[in-house]
Amino acid sequence: MILCCGEALIDMVPFTTGEGGAFRPCPGGSPYNSAVAVGRLGVPVGFVGRLSTDFFGDILVDRLKANGVRTDYIVRADQTSTLAFVRLEKGKEPEYAFYTEGSADRSFRQEDLPAKLPDEARCILFGSISLTMEPIASTIETFVRREASSRVTSFDPNIRPVMIHDRAAYVKRLESLMACATIVKISGADMDFVYPGLDRESAMKRVMAFGPSLVVTTLGADGALAIGKRKDGKEFRATAPIVDVKVVDTIGAGDTFHAGFLSWLEMNGKMSREKIASLSEAELSAALFFANKAASLVCSKRGAEPPTMAEMDALKA
After folding, report:
1. What would the mean pLDDT of 149-173 be, rounded to a whole number?
2. What tens digit of pLDDT does each residue of 84-110 get?
3. Range 174-195 average pLDDT
């Protein structure tokens, strides 16, 4: 089972009506989107966090349940749900304005953490804007450090600069979490923010130096690249191409890629620190290609609507 930990919010996505522009409320949040994506691929998954008892919170929980995501690690509270207004412009990354003050997911506390995880929980996925807010950031850091020695931990920074008020402190926290992650999935834009001036290869090597077994990044039209380190310190790597589809928007693409990559590991019996470090280059390339297919399919739809396994199987590539 993969446990996704962090924020769950309502994306206010722009659309046009006969009367002009408007916003449509859609369930979202990076780890939340990943949980839905894993569930749609038929892999056991749960969500860990704190959600509101308001009607937006009900929408968030109902969507998890409808997609096979376990919700017994969710604490409900009478605080409001986080709102994230999205601006979409052709050819650009989505921009966000977040409304988080006093919200339920931001208020996730250490007392809300599950005291013990079942043995079948082999992976914890975490990251994104959760790490820019308290108390949720410290809660997640405590959780990851507590579990890192016994499970795979997979970290996607998914950086939103608008949420960062102290860049130096934020980067320090990211690097400390990279050091206890098995996998770091990091976009080119995130690497440019953390290590400006470094080329892609140098930035990935910088991340590898903190100790993860695998660093994975997407390369836009050039597909995806992963660099790993074996137990004896030897490096291995693989790439995989994208699947060409008509792009509607890119909301949830990185979250779905992350979910697809981890789902491949779980489905193929590779979800452990030892097995990840001993992946063949062919296996690593297959995992990347599976993740690329999932991300391509989500880009062919409006909003974060990850594919099912039936849609994955139907996409010829």
Report:
1. 95
2. 998 877 777 778 889 999 999 999 999
3. 96
C-alpha 188/C-alpha 208 separation (Å) is 15
pTM of the model: 0.94
Closest by CA position to 1, among listed 157, 117, 133 = 117
In a domain, 94, yes or no: no
Q: How far, in Å, CA of 273 to CA of 110, rounded? A: 26
Q: How many domains does the chain have?
A: 1
Given its phi and psi angles, is residue 169 left (phi above 0), alpha (psi -120 to 50 degrees) or beta?
alpha
Longest CA span, the chain: 63
Which is more confident, 21 or 230? Answer: 230
Residues in contact with 115: Cβ distance below 8 Å, sequence separation at least 6, in sequence order: none
Alpha-carbon gap, residue 137 to 156, rounded angstroms: 14
Find the CATH number of the domain harbouring 173. Answer: 3.40.1190.20
